[in-house]
Amino acid sequence: MPTNTDNRKENLINPRHNPTLAAVLSIIPGIGQIYNRRFVKGAALFILFAAFFSAMYSFIVSGLQGLVTLGEIPREHDSRVFLSEGILSLIFFAFFAMFYVLNITDAYKDAKRIQLGWKVPNMREGFKNAWDTSFPYLLVTPGLFLLLFVVVFPLLFMIFLAFTNYNLYNAPPRHLLSWVGFDNFIRLFTIAEWRSTFFNVLSWTLVWTFVATTLQIALALFLAVVVNDPRIKFKRLIRTVFILPWAVPAFVTIIIFSALFNDNFGAINLHMIEPLFGTKIPWMTDVTWSRVAIIMIQVWLGFPFVYALFTGVLQSISSDWYEAADMDGANRWQKFRNITFPHVMFATAPLLIMQYSFNFNNFNIIYLFNQGGPAVRGQTAGGTDILISWIYGLTFDNQQYNMAAAISIILGILVASFAFFQFRRTRSFKEEGNI
Description:
With 435 residues, this protein is an all-alpha fold. The protein folds into two domains: 4-170, no CATH class; 186-434, MetI-like fold. It is built from 17 helices and no strands. It has helices at 4-11, 19-25, 31-35, 39-69, 79-115, 123-161, 183-190, 192-228, 235-247, 250-260, 267-277, 287-316, 319-327, 332-360, 363-370, 387-397, 401-425. The longest helix has 39 residues, at 123-161. The protein is flat. Residues 1-10 have low confidence and may be disordered. Its main location: membrane.
């Protein structure tokens, strides 16, 4: 009685053509394709791999060695250069490995198809098929290379720095960097000064993000619902006025508010607070009042964009829904809770999540208002510093590059985790049948 294996062998038109042999021959790139009678493709692959290997072998080997040692002669070897060349070597090696595996896979798949009766195309058909299948990748390639050297390379450089001892007192080329493993992360959570600063800044960052963003969304929703009411006249004028704060560059607005909130000569103290209450509020020198001021400024800066989103969504809601609700005897709150609010949230949820992520890393307002101040005793961060502005201060003011890189990794993980979790839960990102 024939087995399943025997039946499969009977279905093969060319059983003597061995896919495994094609894959083994492709250990030398191009030879497997030549075995499959794709001579031009095999020759091209062999030449490309040989050229890459001969041109990049010495750079990759020396780069990987330098990545391990980070230099051996102080004042002559710059560890930053060794680190950069090592990262580039890793990227080139990853590309080589990826295309090497694709070369083996391609030879195996072609051999499998030949075994099943596939006819090897001639040169003209081969070029046409290659052009048709590779054209989309050809268009994507420039963007991919730009992404690698503008995003991936700096990101990897920062990640590697987090595991070195790069700081003000150990800066190359005078000194050589060395790998310290997870010591920077351990210091961040075990040394009292670093631990207290980190958790204070992290807690304020979370409070700032939630309070400022939620208030700007709530204000925008309230104003959008009120202005959308059919009894309101001059809608276009009102909407134009509400959009104006968005039209002014944010850094200009922040600098103006910084002057308005100044403790000594600011208009808010001189012409509003002092005449009414006979005192001045220390907006710039007291941590609590500085935080209140920054939150109010962010609400002013952030609500116009969200207001524009909500206004567009409200105008797209059919009036039939509200007419049906009126016939059922629903009041204003019930119509808002069951019709307006769900529609607005469904349409804008991804953008609102981006507002939270943006404010989590909103460096401009923190730095331009009062450079993260006022100072706090026993901390390396100011009273209004959030994680991103603290990292900036550690990098450019204190030259604590290793600690700044370690905190940046933690910051990136927090933002990515929050965004991924929220986007996955958002109905807008689910398939229509799975909502």
